[in-house]
Amino acid sequence: MNNLIEFFKKNFHYFLFAILLVLSFVMMGKSMAYSKYKFAKLCQNTIGPIQKNWAEMMHRFSLGEENDHLTQQNIELMREHDNMFVWKEDTTLTMMSNTDSLHPKSMRLYDYTYAHVIFKTTDQAFNYLIIDKGSEDGISRDMAVTCPQGVVGVVSDVSEHFSSIIPILHPDSRISATVSPINQVGTVVWEGNNPQVAYLENIPQHLEINIGDSVLTSGFSNIFPKGLLIGTVKEVATGKNASFLTIKVKLAADFNRLNTVYLIENLYKSEIDNLKANFKNE
Hints:
Blueprint lengths: L1 H9 L1 H20 L1 H10 L1 H18 L2 H15 L6 E4 L3 H6 L7 E4 L1 E11 L8 E3 L12 E3 L4 E8 L4 E5 L7 E6 L3 E6 L7 E5 L12 E4 L11 E10 L6 E7 L8 E7 L2 H9 L5
Antiparallel strand pairs: 1-2, 3-4, 3-14, 4-7, 5-6, 5-14, 6-7, 8-9, 8-11, 9-10, 10-13, 11-12, 12-13
């Protein structure tokens, strides 16, 4: 016992230094949410394998194989929705030469895959998710991310085996949306604090918006297909700018219980982006 006490006395300053160092990192992380977010992204390749192994173990204990099978079945069904295709009428020349071409023909515009969430935050100023798939699995930046309940966010950064996602619960998130049934286009943003609530901006005050109306993706961003559920109108009020309404939206996705996500790729995004780049800012 005396030897142990002497050991601690002799090396006291080393232990004190280590304790203070750990405390300083903890305090810095808690007081600087954005720094914590950036640090986590930098450490993605280091902590990713650990998180992935843990997530896989938990996944096996929660009927993972059966869930994956159901997820794949869901993807096959979602791939056949009309909003996955561009529907085109045949030209007059084609119609004259093909008697079976009177029906619109489809071109697949979007395709699905899925991944598991291995890390997430929901209570920070700058929230993010990390999934267990990366460039090796065909994941790329700006892919849309959803879950069975609704829209989640957009892929932000991709490494070989992992990807990070900026969810709706992030100040940089901007999702083009419409309110059904009036189909007025606005933008869904998050103002912090509540992981269940976002706001729909740029909706003119003269329009009639009702509590319970659906807020859906507009399809104008080349990221999200049209008609995906973002949430429902929870509250409507006159905004600070008298020309627009302040609309509170209850988000459809439950971020606290998020486990499996769907990733949607616009197969022609680069082609469309190239056309957009040709437009000059007036």
